[in-house]
Batch of 3 targets.
Target 1
Amino acid sequence: MDSTPSNPASLEEKRHTLAHLLAAAVHERFPHAKATIGPAIDNGFYYDFDFSSTDSSDGTAGHKHATPTEADLAGLEETMRELLPSWNEMLGTEVSENDARSRFAKNEYKLEIIDEVVAKGEKLTLYTAGDFTDLCRGGHAERPSKDIAKDSFVLDRIAGAYWRGNENKPMLTRIYGLAFNTKEELEAYQAQREEAKKRDHRKLGKELDLFTFSDLVGSGMPLFTPRGNIVRSSIINYSRELNNELGFGEVHTPNVNKGDLFKISGHYDQYKEGMLSVHSQYVEDEMFLKPMNCPQHTQIYASQPRSYRDLPIRYSDFAVLYRDERPGELSGLTRLRAFSQDDGHIFCREDQIEAEVESVLAAIQKALATYKIEAWMRLSLRDPQNKAKYIGEDETWNKAEEIMRTLLKEKNITFKEAEGEAAFYGPKIDIMAVDALGREWQISTVQLDFVQPSRFQLEYTAEDGAKKTPVMIHRALIGSPDRFMGILIEHYGGAFPAWLAPVQVRVLPISDKQGDYAQEVLTTLRAAGIRAEVDTASESLGKKIRDAKMQKLPYLLVVGDKEITDKTVSVESRDHGKLDASSVADFVTKISQEIKDRA
């Protein structure tokens, strides 16, 4: 008989089921543990447990492994595989509140969940597989033993996690697992992750001397070294170049602003928890470090009368922004408290929306092609079931969302829709970059805003003399240069293309005898605007080459007696190996064109 299930389980259902299987294995080996919640996640699953129980009625008091360690993962994983064949089906049963409370009478975490489910008027369900029963709302593999391959999952690591993510609640033990449809997919993910560790921008940033952090400065506040600032500035300058092509005028706005500005924009009500407050010795105004530039740009627009002939008006801004991120969410350059954006805002008429959005999307696509990063687009919409998160009327939102949807369709742009991902003032097109390891990052965005211009009472004089409210388009090209730099370090594995590289060329004299000629070559390179240096260390040529390769430099120029005689350099490319010997002038021409083209 065919054992294939009629409704094959999705990967998410398999992962959710494996979370239950993990809980069952923990119950087998650590009977005193209190299971809490265990969802599926992007690469597998986890389950949170409280191992602090002092109840000795189960005979485990004084157990030498009262809380599991990494060393226990192999045993738990073995138990999961031993249990899996007996999990022939996953049966859900609706139960009364009293029955649910009776079953979990000694588990305060499950009782809290029961309270919430009852308060919402939802049904309580228990799911049983083998000898294990758990409280759950469903979404599992119906026949785990058939649906889940024994070699398609592994337990990965142990971490601490506050109950419900609240630091004022108990600290639990979280056990993570990896899970995929097949062993091959699991191994491919593990290999990708190992490569990601090698490319970790925090590790490479230190090795390549690009940036640092200091406890005295503050968490999430990056300090860029001279080399790192070259990379960051190169990213910003390219965005500036694209802004110029689009007709943006760059502005500069202050970091500290009165709270009243953010009350009008809506950020005060919607975003205050993420803003850093500032206090003055001389005025009583409530003030904040700005988390975004859009409210300030409305005030530049409002500083003088505007006509329909003036529109569109485009402002760009690279000011530093500040957001009060939770300590546990900070991650190198990819999640910061202080960062800039290649920010821009367009004030336009409704009939200009399509052309403006189209030109911005084209610039974003040009940038990503230059950086050699693939991407896809997401239309982020309001959550219709949670309108309190947003400002503006239904009619305005429906209009804005349909404009963006229609624009993408008319331009034959493939996109996915995502409810609940909109900005609080309007829908947006998010550009989801895919790096060399296949990981997705949200970077660029184009947001359509009918709300803030109205709240700030912005206007322009229409052709018929009437006063009208402009539309505001928020956009970024690559998002935060700081964050994007972190992404690029991992995307390139630290091997920046020549136009981005902090040091584009290193000259390597074979010995001290070639020192003068090496300096002549260096002078010529620098005169041409090439970022170059000479290795004057009293080391062997082999060591100098190894050191240069560790720094992932695009080009090495070796000079010995023959090169002095021929007035040439021996060229070695990081990406293409040894090249033909070249005159210095020819090499300068070649690399200068490569840098200019951002090849």
Target 2
Amino acid sequence: MERERQGEKPHKETVQEYLQECLALANKWENPPQVVLSLESGSPTGESTLGPRDVAVSTAYQCYNPGITRMAERKGGKADSVADSTLEAGHHTTRMHYYMTWHLEGLSRSATHEIFNAVRFYNAEQQSQRYAEVKRGAYLIPGDLTAEQRQMFLEAADFANDAYFELIELLPPEVERRVRQMYPPAGWKVPKTVERLQTKIDKVGLEVARYVLPIAQKTTMFYTLSEIQLLRLFRASRQDNFSDEARFVIARMVEEIVKHDGNFLKELPDVLPERPQNFTTQQVLGANEEFDAFLDGRDSVLLNAPGNLSEILAISVKNVLKKSKSEMSDEEALTLLLDPQKNTVLSDTFETGMLDPITQSLFMAHLTFATKLSHTADSQRQRHRMTPGATPFIEASYSGRPDYITPMIIRENDELKERYDLIMQKIYTNVERLIETGVPKEAALTLLPNAHAIRVVESGSLFDWAHRLKQRLCILAQEEIGFISIAQAQEILKLLPEAEHLLVAPCASAFWAGTGKCPEGVRWCGQPVWKWQLDEYGKGRLV
């Protein structure tokens, strides 16, 4: 204000100042996440290492200049001019050729869900809590708490970790009972099969027990982005849905690239201004109750679909084949598109249908669902990047009251459910108590459980829904996503009954195409799913 009274312009924070501000956030945790650049786009044989800006200018030259342009270092005024002008004008395909892979170690599942797995154009191989037992005490600890707050935080996180290991001990008898129902009795007489099924019992126990873990629990992943996607993350990082942890990790990703190529600093765009989102817990509660009332006890509800869905698909197919109504009926066109016996690429695990003109007709129909699921299941949903969701960030999902999903195995066992509900009540009480004692809300909410309920509106083309549902209708898919997929497939079939052999598990798709049975091989679920109708999927799902 003093500067303004003296006629001076207020200081505008530079990109580099903001970057340093984000890097300084490392002090907010006792052991901040680690970011290591593991892989980046290579250079042509015999060439020196190229940076992102060299690649952007080289590709721009190829676009705008006659003749052949090679990848090479690009220095000087002309190169800078082309780099700056294409970046500022939004000609960003030049920034999609350079890829970087980081090893992200020790970041929370809160940050991975909120930002890093919520973007659309990325790839990640993340350590799975479904298959790997977590390490006790491996959660992100805030570094800016008082001694009393720190002790309360640790006690709350330790309680959730202890509950996880308690459930691992309690679950095996119930899981084994169910697994024995799923697999033929003869298999239990074969030593190798018994060994494999015992491993399955252990893994299912981990999958269910993880629901009580806090989203502060650490994870590790390889994470790949193109240059433009990193620039987008950096530019948007001041927005309210980006936690301090996400800002710090993004800044470290940038810093790792700058170590390799200082010119990358010239690529960084100005950061968008803050856009605070303010709401009360009562508003969150009201919105959640309204969403749940709309679902009316269901996992997922179709919000929209074209009323002439069949007609759209039929017209598209006939246009590809150049067939008139007199030459091909709508029914024939739909059969050619949707029946795996006629369209065998539907069962191809490489999804080559996206390159087939007939199958591309599935892209012409768009479907939107309202879905409720747990935080951990939503992380599974995010893996399907072509059916993205509009998802509230964690603070916008918290009403101050227990709001969680219960896995089927626990829900259907009275003793397990009683213990699970007591654990959840304690977890939510701990979170609220931390907030009341002055722990920053962002930090306190990282102790919400994986079971915490998330409400999302998600959308995609019929092609992308068919791909997703085929994967998640498999009995080996995560339980919650499996039941949600059944509900979504049933909703689509009400409008498009001709898709009855399209919206099925991978083994059923292969069966109808005549290409085999279960593509999972030795991981087969033990059930003849390819013989089932969709309505039987839920009844046959025991774990």
Target 3
Amino acid sequence: MMKQRLLYGLILLVCVAMTSCSKDDMQGSMEQEQPYAKGELFVKFSPDVADMIAQAVPTRSGMVTRSGVPSVDEVMEIVGTYELERVFPVDEQREEVTRKSGLHQWYIVRFDGGMDAELVAQQFKSLGEVQKIDFNRTIKRAYTGKATPLSQEKLERAAARATRATMNDPLMSMQWNLVNNGDMFTEGEVVKSVKDADVQCADAWNKSKGDESVIVAVLDEGVFVEHPDLKDNIWINEDEVYRSHDDNDGNGFVGDYYGYNFARNVGVITWNDVYDSGHGSHVAGVIAAKNNNGIGISSIAGGDANTAGVKIMVCQIFSGNVGSSSIAVARAIKYAADNGAVVLQCSWGYVSGRANEYDWGATGFASQEEWEAGAPLEKDALDYFTHNAGSPSGVIDGGIAVFAGGNESAPMAGYPGASEDYVSVAATAADFTPAVYTNYGPGTSISAPGGDQDYYFDYVDDEHGYGEIGCILSTLPYNVSKSGYGYMEGTSMACPHVSGVVALGISYATQLRRHFKAEELQQLLINTAVPIDAYMTGIKTYSRYVIDMGPQQPMQLNMSQFKGKMGSGQVNAAALLEAIAGAGTQMTFPNLYVATNGQVVVAPARYFVHGEQLSFEVTISDSTVASYQKQDAKIIFKGLKNGSTKASVKASNGETHNFIITVREGANNNGWL
């Protein structure tokens, strides 16, 4: 069979691809395997049936053997059902929101593995008590290659000749994706680099370098949480105990200190298996490697020596050679929302519905309707994130999900990213031209640097192999690269550039105390992109790269086919931050809902510009309804009896915010009814 080039991919069979970067050769089309787990279905029961099942659950695990509804149990008997388990574990703090969103209605139905899952699905679909059916799709990798490591010797030589002074990180001179001076890829009359064909970090950093209150959930392989360029910006669940065997914080996940390993269903994050590529660590570095610390790379929102950057929550959906599944993805999405993430970084998705079936073995969903009908659990989980992440009284109400558009060179982005509700990212080279592998067209929201090794095949010297410097340089685990750094390319490298810019924008809004609806900020992201259609002219020449053989088969792309199809343009951090300053609404101290005999803890500094430098005094009109006490930088409000009272908080600069305290039975300790 002919060898074909495959960009690093993680395939969610039948036709799902986690789009990414380093190149590899494979024989023929992808191996066809069982597309979903045997003996399992996801069933969304009607609310009343879900309540009946819940009443029968003896433990927090949510496992029972029968529903208690005769018609449903009759089908279960026929198909040999032996267990029902809630898809989403009970989180006491978020259960009310979970129920309002209907996610508590989703159950895993486990049955005799000898029964055909599609036939079992038909049996359940005939029941009026069943609203939706989904399959637990098998998720597997379809690659054998890893990143291209940067050797320690090359790192030291590159650091010695570093010339860019924006940050003191020695490898920043090789990060054209962040600051592109237009001088990296020019030989005679051949120009493959354009000034400012980056994400416009230099100007954006004058306003913000990130804020530690902003959390980005990375759904990927595990992240090397001990990497010296990452460790300061890894999210920590302060209510959990490191490597604990108990669910200390009661959120339904044991030992989730840095996040959770959904692939293995354990709290321990892994990154150093022989089958791990380092992809999760690479993505994390683009977003939040520590800036200006004198080592390694720079990042979009990693703070600096004096400022903490945004935090990376590790939602691991791949681990070594352990296969993953739809349930791991769905649980990771909900976990992210429930535990404070406001940006969902997703370098995965289905193969484009318009991909070449011969090359990719199968194609994915071709429309919004097909995707919603074919992946209802995934859609419900993503809706939960976009609607329930953040806070109505915080900087952002809702969450923003960012997806890689796909690497199949297809004229349509892959789902879920192609959905109108999320951001789907196409990849560009250092001259604004589309990367030779990128998907484009319908469903594409925006573009960002993704690297293009085949385009820069002729840039080879003692420091780099064929075209490596035209890829994206970022952090890697030491088992993948002894230096801790290396190159990858793909729309899944473009994706974290957009996630990082979104996180930087939210950080700036935090500094300004501006409040946004998630969809409002998402639209600002799209509207502030740099138009790049002017670069969609002529012919782009490149060479296919074959591992161990170097560049082969000179090829051409007609740029006109991409005009108007790379989203709104290239992501622009500086323009986004400028737009944020004049948009949204000014934050004010929120109205509080407190349980009788309960309490709510609030940090008033979050609602006042430069609040960290201020002191605060509280006045409560009716002290029989509620009381307060100060605790360091926080104020604890206690509910004394049912009722409402006016209150105010006055800052030391004279600014005063008025609010209402409502005390009711049933309010939770997050302050909401």
